[in-house]
Amino acid sequence: LVAASAATAEAATFPIDFGKTRMQLHSGRQSFVGALVSTIRSEGIGGVYAGIQPAIVRHLIYSSLRISFYEELRHRLTSYTSTSASSALAGLLGGGLAQA
Predict the structure, then answer these.
(1) Angstrom distance (rounded) from CA 33 to CA 40
(2) What is the model's pTM?
(3) Ramachandran assignment for 27, one of left (phi > 0), alpha (psi -120 to 50 degrees), beta (any other)
(4) Considering the chain, what percentage of its residues have pLDDT values greater than 70?
(5) How far is CA 27 from CA 15, 17, 62, 86, in A?
(6) Angle at 24 between CA 48 and CA 28, to 5 degrees
(7) Contact 48/40 with Cβ under 8 angstroms?
């Protein structure tokens, strides 16, 4: 379920990242909407989603690891003391381990 949520979120936000990157490449000479429209006109809608496969795979792996690490660490840390600090520490460690 986590992996599916991550893939859906990536698919929904990928055009935003794409437009932002195109704007950065054109150094302020192009608006966000202009970047999307010019890409769709020249490359089709698939041009906006070019490169989404690696992004989804990255999110599938990262999100699955992050949640797995978090749940295990939260279980181990809260078995000693159940505080919000121990849950926050589990979240920090889980995210850090997944990124490594």
Answers:
(1) 11
(2) 0.70
(3) left
(4) 99
(5) 18, 15, 31, 44
(6) 115
(7) yes
